[in-house]
Specification:
One of its GO terms (molecular function) is electron transfer activity. The chain is mainly alpha-helical. The protein has two domains: 141 residues, no CATH class; 117 residues. It has a two-stranded antiparallel sheet. It is globular and about 65 Å long.
């Protein structure tokens, strides 16, 4: 009996490996969904600022126009290792100058590289998965207008077992949630939800995570430890952030709080980005935040 069971073990191992391989295949967009899309770089610039691309992909400590050179290099320490933002400038060899709209869509919607590998979720594709294809096409058109950089992207410092990229397919099955987190009850709140839950990826910092790094959607935007474990990102639910909608919109535009304090830390970058958006978008973000249930 034992010998018979043992004879099945190789078969079970192969079947298990095949099932794992099938379940963890990197996702790709159906190319038919991209038919007829033409990117508009002017609209793409607004997507660029809403998505905060320069905050992560500009070279560390760059200022002014240098922030538009998306050479990468910023470090993101985490319990799983240190990740480094890649070069996403239009350089065809070291950046993403050779990418198609489909390549960018696969990266943002599925966390899949042009070579068919999983990206680490330090790149917030779990939020970008809610982005509209037209916005991705517009962003692709705008990125092509930026200065190219020949800087080589730095390899992530990630040890076993987190360096097994194929296992990220299992992580995505568990924690990737492209559905909206909240309901929207008006066009303004729908726009605010899109900016917060998708392009702005606010939940990536303001929502707690479980031990495997997945967002805890039951505590949406209720504050969380920073990824490096050295601080805490505040809650922005109405029970903790009691500013008026006008106060929130003004803060996002200027960085000044109602108490005449100023934004600090990473929010400085966020304000620099959001200040480029029209006032209607900032008011939509504020309206959305005011609809959230209070935290526990």
């Amino acid at each position: 009996m034992i010998r018979k069971v043992l004879s099945f073990l190789p078969f079970l191992a192969v079947a298990g490996l095949a099932l794992f391989w099938w379940l963890t295949v990197p996702g790709r967009i159906d190319s038919a969904r991209l038919g007829g899309l033409a990117g508009d770089p002017a609209r793409g610039e607004q997507v660029f600022w809403a998505a905060g691309c320069a905050s992560c992909h500009a070279a560390p400590e760059s200022q002014g126009e240098a922030r538009m050179v998306l050479a990468g290099g910023m470090a993101f320490p985490s319990p799983f290792g240190t990740f480094y933002a890649p070069n996403i400038s239009p350089d065809p060899d070291r950046g993403i100058g050779g990418w198609t709209v489909a390549d960018l869509a696969n990266a943002m919607l599925h966390g899949t590289s042009p070579e068919g590998a999983h990206y680490y979720p330090a790149f917030p594709y779990t939020s970008y998965a809610r982005a509209e294809l037209q916005d991705i096409a517009d962003l692709h058109a705008f990125l092509a207008t930026l200065p190219a950089s020949e800087t080589t992207s730095r390899a992530h410092d990630v040890s076993f077992p987190f360096n097994i990229r194929r296992s990220l397919g299992g992580w995505k099955l568990l924690f990737s949630r492209p559905a909206w987190v909240t309901e929207a009850t008006s066009p303004e709140i729908t726009r605010g939800r899109y900016l917060v839950e998708a392009l702005g990826h606010c939940g990536e910092c303001h929502t707690p995570r479980n031990t495997l790094g997945g967002l805890d959607y039951t505590r949406w935007l209720q504050g969380a430890p920073t990824a490096d474990g050295k601080g805490r990102t505040p809650a922005i639910t109405p029970d903790k952030l009691d500013w008026s909608a006008n106060d929130i919109a003004a803060y996002l535009a200027t960085g000044f709080t109602p108490e005449y304090d100023v934004a600090g830390g990473h929010m400085t970058e966020v304000v620099q980005n959001l200040a480029h958006l029209p006032e209607t978008d900032l008011k939509a973000i504020a309206a959305y935040l005011k609809t959230l249930p209070g935290g526990g």
